[in-house]
């Protein structure tokens, strides 16, 4: 009887427990994959973050800019968003988010409020040096500051 069919009986309780464990592992893997992507993006921006005060610190002096509009792009879930920085020779005049779709605004509800706070602080400060932000939006603020700084780097003489 080497070719006989075998029947495996799994009690319903054990089957439900196995399904729950597998579902929990899938959820943890999804959190690790999707939750880790924003922190990895913030780490790869090259911006130094002081964890005690949530202040971005850089070593730049009072810059002189070439007047114009400079753009830097960021990707959020594969959707590009452009950050436009308008400068004259000595001042940052305006910072705008361009090509911001409704789906990105829905998926990232803190994006607009974080951007408005950072925009005001950068324009008042005249650079991205020593900008403070809410600790709850650390990664969003770091990403936005990096994009603004990238556009300002293009504008520097």
Description of the molecule:
It is a single chain. By secondary structure, the protein is an alpha+beta fold. Helices cover 45% and strands 20% of the residues. The chain has helices at residues 12-43, 102-107, 111-125, 138-155; strands spanning 49-50, 55-56, 68-76, 79-87, 92-98, 131-132. The strands form two sheets. Strands 1-2-6 form a three-stranded antiparallel beta sheet. A three-stranded antiparallel beta sheet has the order 3-4-5, with helices on one face. β3 (68-76) and β4 (79-87) form a beta hairpin. α1 (12-43) runs parallel beside α4 and α3 (111-125) packs across α4 (138-155). The protein is elongated, with a radius of gyration of 24 Å. The termini are far apart. 18% of the residues are buried.
Q: How would you summarize this macromolecular structure in one to three sentences?
A:
The protein is an alpha+beta fold. It has 4 helices and 6 strands.
SSE layout and pairings?
Blueprint: H1 12-43, E1 49-50, E2 55-56, E3 68-76, E4 79-87, E5 92-98, H2 102-107, H3 111-125, E6 131-132, H4 138-155
Antiparallel strand pairs: 1-2, 2-6, 3-4, 4-5
- What general form does the structure show? elongated
For the residues shown, what is the average pLDDT? Answer: 79
Total helix count?
4
Beta-strand percentage range: 15-25%
Strand order of the largest sheet: 1-2-6
Output the radius of gyration: 24 Å
By DSSP, the count of extended strands is 6
For the largest beta-sheet, the strand count, sense and barrel status come to: 3 strands, antiparallel
| Secondary structural class | alpha+beta
Uncertain runs: 37-60
Helix content: 40-55%
Give the H and E element order.
HEEEEEHHEH
Distance between the termini: 86 Å
